[in-house]
Amino acid sequence: MLNKEIRFRQTSFGRIAYREAGDPDLPPVLLVHGIPTSGYLWREVMGFLCSDFYCLAPDLMGLGHSQVDPQTPMDMESQAEMLLEFMTGLGHEQFSAVCHDQGGAATQIMAARCPKRVTCLVLSDCVCYDNWPVPVIARYQKLARLPVLIDLAGRFRLFSFLETCTPLSAFRRGVYDSAKMTADAIREYLGPLQRDAQGRARFKAFLLAGHPRYNLQAVPGLKRFERPTLVVWAADDHYISPSWGKRLSEDIPGVERFVLVPFCGHFWQEERPAEFSSHILEFLKKHT
């Protein structure tokens, strides 16, 4: 059963918001989002998985509804540590992990450094190697370094206007069919920029913390990761080419399959959740 209520878990990093679905007695699955989304990204996917698994979709520090001090480190190493602490706090020493976008960097760090905790792994359209930041994020990082710009743009809802009402929408370039990325979903993802100054400061800290060194440091451990792994990618990803998924599938010894889903963009959770979830569910049921 899908619980639409946002819950919170206190950690040493702050109060981490999360969504859950399924019976807590079922095998746990951690779903990790990227930028600029949140655990909300996984709502449809959890609906497909929750009959067989206990699904947990936390909001990374700096995004969504998680409440942390803006001075808290928000690099991918810290995010990985937070996720491990979050799962431990809920009583899950081992779990399956499904990741997307920049959440892939944090999840790869977990798999590389703590492989015994990750029973099986799904990598999807994610940050890896030196492919971060992608050009659109690099541009936003430059803007974020200008004093007060992010705060002013968020306060006056400029980002919301650009993303929901103009052809400049980066969200809608992230789907094959632009109608699948609704204005309501975009506003939910941009929530931290619109709520208050603290939210904007956290978002800015997350944005500027992104660096390829975290991905590259995980590569040696990934090349030793033998737990069952599925790589599933949107064939029409505008931001992170399927070639990166192919490379991951060749480097990680535990990879069983590399699956391409056609006519689908980066934010496949908004566009083709049923088809992706069928691949993920089959894989998870096989290995848990």
Describe the structure.
- There is one protein chain.
- The protein has 288 residues and is α/β, with parallel strands linked by helices.
- It has one domain (2-132, 211-287): Alpha/Beta hydrolase fold, catalytic domain (Rossmann fold, 3-Layer(aba) Sandwich), CATH 3.40.50.
- The chain contains 14 helices and eight strands.
- The chain has helices spanning 43-49, 76-89, 103-113, 135-144, 149-155, 158-165, 170-173, 183-189, 191-195, 197-209, 212-222, 242-251, 268-271, 273-287, and strands at 2-11, 14-21, 28-32, 54-58, 95-101, 118-126, 229-234, 255-261.
- It has an eight-stranded mixed beta sheet with strand order 1-2-4-3-5-6-7-8, with helices on both faces.
- The chain is globular.
- It starts with a strand and ends with a helix.
- The relative contact order is 0.16.
Features:
288 residues; alpha/beta
Short description, anyone?
51% of the residues are buried. Helix 1 links the parallel strand 3 and strand 4. The chain has a single domain, classed as 3-Layer(aba) Sandwich (Rossmann fold), CATH 3.40.50.1820.
